[in-house]
Amino acid sequence: MNGLKEFFGNIPMFQKQVEREIEEKGIEPSEGIKKMEFSRQVIRNLVIGVLVVGILAFVGISYFNNKNQPPVTPTATTASKESNQSETSGEATENSSQAVQGSSDHLLKLSAKERAEEATEAFESWYTSFSNGDGILEINKELLKEGSGGTSPIELQTKLIDNLKAKFGDKVSDDFYTGLQASFNFNPVIVDGTKGLTISKQNDDKSQWLRTWFLDTQKTEKNTKIVLRNEFPYEWADWRNKG
């Protein structure tokens, strides 16, 4: 203790602190008081120093113990459980994916079937909206006379398509009329000197000719009308109804 007193006593800052605390307490700074206060300050600083060193030592020991401790390896049982859980999870995911795929395929098939049924219903609705023999285009008999000049195929087919649009409305799509117009470009509507008003077959492309299957003539010597026909069951004509 005497050694510590001598050590701290040689520090001017420490001596000034002792004197300042004596003055703050309002005590006469006699030699005995100074020694007492000096001893108290030495003991207090000693205790604080021991505590600081102890805390630092504890922190250091804990740090090195944690650093040098080997990592925990899972036991065989734990690894086996984790492996089994992973396999089970993988199988569940695969089964779930297969179920979703199966459901998706079913919906696609169902959707395709529904679309086919809707198309067939639309075709039947259109096919039954007119009667066999309904007139769709008629010309004046004067146009059949030789030298009358007749009328151009473009005018005839334009008038025919306009009449179809007026009769069917939204029962058929624009693609229907576009395809029919293309067919007339290959097989035009004309006024023939012998047959009268008719659709001439000038192209061997069956796909173009078949588009006009529902259009017919009166089969008279000097025909003046093109009529609609639906004298057979609609299933025969509906190329989408494949069963």
How many distinct domains?
2
Secondary structure: number of strands: 5
What pattern of helices and strands is seen along the backbone?
Answer: HHHHEHHEEHEEH
> What characterizes the major β-sheet?
3 strands, antiparallel
Strand content: 5-15%
Molecular shape? rod-shaped
User: What Rg is obtained from the alpha carbons, in whole angstroms?
Assistant: 54 Å
* Structural class computed from helices and strand pairing: mainly alpha
Stretches where pLDDT falls below 50 for ≥5 residues? Answer: none
Q: Strand order, biggest sheet?
A: 1-5-4
> Share of helix among residues?
55-70%
Please provide a brief summary of the model:
The chain has 243 residues and is mainly alpha-helical. The chain has helices at 2-9, 12-24, 31-68, 76-127, 153-168, 174-186, 206-210, 234-237; strands at residues 135-138, 189-192, 196-199, 215-217, 225-228.
Kindly list the characteristics that best describe this protein.
rod-shaped; 243 residues; 3-stranded antiparallel sheet; 2 domains; mainly alpha
